[in-house]
Structures are given as C-alpha cells and as structure tokens.
C-alpha cells in the first residue's frame, strides 16, 4: 500500500476552492447522504479546553471514512495562537487504510462556511440586487464566509461592500474592503437592519443583537457556538424565522441557539428544518420570514470536503 498523501494548510486550500466545497456538500446531500445517521461527535474536557473527536462513515454513501481530532483552546487567541487546531485522517472505506492526512484547521476553515452557503444558497440566489452582507466577528470564519460567498455567487449575484461588526475595531482582523464598525453602535444597528445576510461567527455566549433589527426577508447564519448553553442569536429571532439545522438531533444536543430558544418557549423541536430538505428542494422556507441557519459542525461535512480536497490534490 502506498504512503498516505500529506496535505498541509496551503495544499488543502489549493486543492479545493470554497465554491468546490459548496458543490461537494450539495452533491452529497442530493445524492442521498443523510446527516441524521452520522456518527456522534465526542468532546473530551481538558484543563486548557477540550478535544473533539469527529468520526464519520458518511452513512455508507461515500468511498472513504474519516476522523478529525481537533483541539479547542479558548485561551489561545490571547496568546496569538489559533483557538481550534487539529488533523484529519481520511481512510479507504473498504480496507480502512489511511490514504491522506489533512491539516484539520484548514479543513475546518474551508468546510464551515461551505456548509453555511450550501444551506442558504437557494434563498440568496432569489434576489438580483447586490447582496448586502453584515458579518459579526473577525476570526477565520468571518473571513471564510465572505470568501465562500464570493466564490459561490460568482457570475450569479454581485456582493455589495461588506460591513464587519466587532467589539474592538482596533484589534480586529479586518475583512478586505469591509466597513468596520463597533458592535452595538448606531452604525452597527443600521448595518443589521439593511442586511440581506447576517453572518455570526463569534465566541459570544449571549445574543449579539436585538431580533427587531433583522429584516423580515433576511438570512441569518450562526456558526460560532457548538455548546448547548451558549448562543449568538436572540430567541425572538428563532420565533420569527424558519430555523434550518444540519440535523435536528445534533442541534438539540449541541446548538445553544436552538436549545435555549426552545427553553424560552420561542421555538419547538418539531419546527426545525433539516438542511438536507432545503438543499434537495423537499422544503422551501417561507420567503416572507427570516431564514435562520444554525450550524454546529458535523463529522460528515469534514468527510465530504476531505474527499473533494483529495480529488483536487490528485
């Protein structure tokens, strides 16, 4: 058996552009992959944070299986280090031989915004005016969502200049060409009111804004939390909107935006719409209501994108 292919961060980025990751995820869901049968993620608590073990066999729908081992260290950003690090092992599904080792942080940075865009792309393509995007956060996912949107919308809908909202503008990593404003100011409120798409990519544990600031036809994506006691979105927004999740079971275990909204009486578990149903067209969310996509990250997503990366590298 040949030695595994080793793909560092630069190689992962070169092998699969963001639009390619969106296309791979969309094709997998339309081809029959069911996130509901994905293997559960396991979290192991440590003094400095936690280890996340994310195995997936793709429900038997893919030619590979894989596992990501990621570390989450909340104190790292203050030290100038990444909050999330890790590696991904891609194995042949029949022999379980390792065929590739990928930089886990680069894979996560690629697949997370690709999942978001795949979930809401149909709604975004319904408009023709330049898409007005407001991004909350300044980390890799804030930047990654803008790059992925640009790639997926290329030739189909123009992006208006992005507004980036942060708590400390002087310390934020600004998105290229974005207008940067301090969260909670009149300028940030205006950016939220006029946004067609709001992306929340922060480490916040409490709601970032008032639900009334979000337009009735807006799309809101929240990717910052995967813990049941932390949320970026107000419960009232979940009450107003159609809430789409990767998988209802996973969301009820891990998505604080969902769990806490249900506890507040603003949302019911049966109201959750699986991402698969939206991507395949089985469900078309009401265009007159906000579309909320809450992502926690699931193992099948890493597997699908890792396969696309390997194909591109070869």
From TrEMBL:
<dbReference type="Pfam" id="PF02423">
    <property type="entry name" value="OCD_Mu_crystall"/>
</dbReference>
<dbReference type="InterPro" id="IPR036291">
    <property type="entry name" value="NAD(P)-bd_dom_sf"/>
</dbReference>
<protein>
    <submittedName>
        <fullName>Ornithine cyclodeaminase family protein</fullName>
    </submittedName>
</protein>
<dbReference type="InterPro" id="IPR003462">
    <property type="entry name" value="ODC_Mu_crystall"/>
</dbReference>
<dbReference type="InterPro" id="IPR023401">
    <property type="entry name" value="ODC_N"/>
</dbReference>
């Amino acid at each position: 058996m040949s030695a595994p292919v080793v793909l560092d961060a630069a190689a992962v980025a070169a092998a699969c552009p963001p639009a390619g990751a969106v296309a791979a995820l969309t094709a997998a869901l339309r081809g029959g992959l069911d996130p509901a049968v994905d293997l559960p993620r396991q979290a192991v608590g440590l003094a400095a944070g936690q280890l996340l073990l994310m195995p997936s066999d793709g429900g038997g729908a893919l030619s590979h299986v894989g596992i990501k081992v990621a570390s989450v260290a909340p104190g790292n950003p203050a030290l100038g280090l990444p909050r999330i690090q890790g590696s991904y092992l891609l194995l042949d599904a029949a022999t379980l031989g390792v065929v590739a080792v990928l930089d886990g942080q680069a894979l996560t940075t690629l697949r997370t915004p690709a999942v978001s865009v795949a979930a809401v792309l149909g709604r975004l393509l319904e408009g023709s005016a330049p898409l007005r995007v407001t991004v909350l956060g300044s980390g890799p996912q804030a930047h990654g969502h803008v790059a992925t949107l640009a790639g997926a919308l290329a030739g189909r809908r123009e992006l208006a200049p992005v507004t980036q909202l942060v708590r400390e503008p002087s310390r934020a990593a600004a998105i290229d060409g974005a207008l940067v404003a301090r969260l909670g100011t009149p300028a940030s409120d205006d950016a939220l009111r006029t946004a067609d798409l709001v992306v929340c990519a922060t480490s916040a544990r409490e709601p970032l804004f008032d639900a009334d600031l979000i337009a009735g036809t807006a799309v809101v994506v929240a990717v910052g939390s995967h813990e049941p006691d932390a949320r970026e979105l107000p419960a009232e927004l979940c009450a107003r909107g159609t809430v789409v999740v990767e998988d209802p079971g996973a969301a009820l275990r891990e998505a604080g935006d969902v769990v806490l909204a249900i506890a507040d009486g603003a949302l019911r578990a049966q109201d959750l719409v699986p991402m698969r149903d939206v991507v395949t067209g089985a469900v078309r969310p009401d265009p007159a209501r906000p579309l909320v996509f809450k992502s926690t990250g699931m193992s099948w997503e890493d597997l699908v994108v890792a396969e696309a990366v390997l194909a591109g590298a070869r």
